[in-house]
Sequence to fold (333 residues):
Amino acid sequence: MKRRPLPLLLILIASVAVALATIGQAGAATRPAPRAHASASFLTGIGDQQAGMFRNGLWQRLHTKIVRYVAPYDAVAHLTDLNNAITFIQGAEAAHEQVLIAFYHSEVTPTRLPSVAGYKHYVQKFVKLFPHVRQYESWDESNRGNVAHAFSSPSGSLAAQYYQAMIRVCKGCTAIGLDVLDAQNIGPTLNYISEFKREIGHLRTIMPRIWGLHNYSDINRMESWRTSDLVRALGGQVWLTETGGLVKFGGAFPNNRGSGLSRAAKVLKYMFAVAAARPQIKRLYIYDWTGGTNSTRFDAGLTNIHEQPRAGYVVVCRQLHATGCTGVHVARN
Fold:
């Protein structure tokens, strides 16, 4: 799973649990793939936390143009977080990749949400430090909720204030207004979106034109109605800022004798069809590159722990019309 420091590893597990907690092992029966829209056109990239991906020949073969990285909002104040961000961004720029940075809670004080002034202070320093990065999300998975002793998430109103602060310190940047998780029941997510938009109106600031969505719950059930409803509620252009097929997620999605590998590959194929059927979706960032071990709770890697290609990698390789996809020897773990 994400090669973040351990606290973020725990946070990711909790956040995906929110999105997928009630999904059964097999999910619903496989739906027919949606029809591609005639005007459908989207960019595909990878979301990951490790710069080593850029040195991997399998990744280089894909010839992607975009990558996504999650950074604590106060990364500039903590050496480890800052060095991690520098390493990834420098690796991406050397590979001629356009970087989308998603800000996140602090690694040092994850349960304490910053004031708007504090958030603005640190984000401004980050933006000045990386002048070539021009695409940002104000808060990753902002509707995720709170988990005691693990992390806190902003309300829809506070998320709107963070968004306003970000666009004020990064003028001319491409700003993703809101980055939300789906769930089996999307009612709370729809309410969160409404709260965010109401606050944007109260603030009299610019309504976002681009929105972020993580649709794990929908596509891993081989369904698409949640994605459709949320795309409609968000409005404008939508980027699937995290999406992908689960190889393993706790007991709900086991990887018994490689079953998770084939399941994830099918989900990835379905994911592309869902995106192609909705012209509002202009980008998707597959999460993530490197998988885990047998003891890993969450694993959605296109490659295994040794960065050997899995069946899901082949699906992505073919979708991107890369060369040599057919001859790839896939790993069984």
